Amino acid sequence: MNPLCSRCNRVVYPTEKVNCLDKYWHKGCFSCEVCKMTLNMKNYKGFEKRPYCSAHYPKTSFTSVADTPENLRLKQQSKMQSQVLYKEEFEKNKGKGFSVVADTPELQRIKKTQDQISNIKYHEEFEKSRMGGEAPPPESNTTPAYHQPANPQNYNYQPAPEPVRSAAAAPPPSAGKRYRAVYDYAAADEDEVSFLDGDVIVDVQQIDEGWMYGRVERTGQQGMLPANYVEAI
Fold it and tell me: What distance in Å separates the CA atoms of residue 48 and residue 57, rounded to the nearest whole number?
């Protein structure tokens, strides 16, 4: 059965039917309620299940309410009532230690777990304090290791110069050789001896391939001298 048109109340056949705004219309009857301009599915605007064009679409306007003494009194009364209800709820839940909104089963489980952990720690501390006199303090073994006042000062001492040659304190037993200086030499260390070109070096003893030990005949001083600065007589 074909439906009736919402404007002319006549039968609407499928070839001229427009289904919009939960109603059925003829294509010619689907028009603006004010200017009667024919509308289609693209340019219509519905308001209270009636079609309108863009120019005559009803606009919603807001009404401003003045702050009259009566309105101010009602506002203040509503505010006071809300404060009274808040205080009543606060006094009811004051001694419970939890909020009605926040006291969920999950929070109650966490609180119970924390209480159990606190009891365990308390018993552990109690057992330790009761048996504390029998066990020696753990710090006693490590205390002597830190008393070494002399060690940091050792870094201030100058180390002895490293020998660059063999020691001259114990020359080999062979002695009595004589050498003549072919170059001037100035002693570079305390155990060395200085000499001039042509000086005679007596009591020469070979230390190694590069150094000798002897006494300068001219000055009477003795010490280490380089072997390549003298020649045998």
Answer: 11
